[in-house]
Amino acid sequence: MLDKTYFYPESGRQPSDTGIIDGFKVYKVYEENDVIYHVVDKCVKIT
Q1: Domains and CATH numbers, the chain
Q2: Which of 29, 33, 38, 44 would bridge with 7, disulfide CB 3.0–4.6 Å?
Q3: What is the pTM of this model?
Q4: Which residues contact 28 (CB under 8 A, 6 or more apart)?
Q5: Within 13 Å, how many C-alpha atoms sit on residue 44's CB side?
Q6: Helix (H, G, I), strand (E, B) or coil at 5
């Protein structure tokens, strides 16, 4: 889980940013109920 992000979430007609976080490819970023979600290419184990 992240407490901050440099990725801009999808908004209206503007697509979200994409890129890489710690080796994980970020395909999509979206915001729902004031929480920002990053969709990545692999399962992430959260501990």
Answers
A1: 1-47 (2.40.30.130)
A2: 29
A3: 0.80
A4: 10, 16, 18, 38, 39
A5: 14
A6: coil
Give the E-state strand segments of the chain in sequence order: 19-21, 24-32, 35-40
In angstroms, the Cα distances linking 14 to 9, 36, 47 are: 9, 15, 33
Q: Which two tokens stand for residue 17?
A: 């940013």
Segment 1-47, tens digit of pLDDT: 788 899 999 999 999 999 999 899 999 999 999 999 999 999 988 77
User: What phi and psi values does residue 35 have, to the nearest 5 degrees?
Assistant: -115, 130
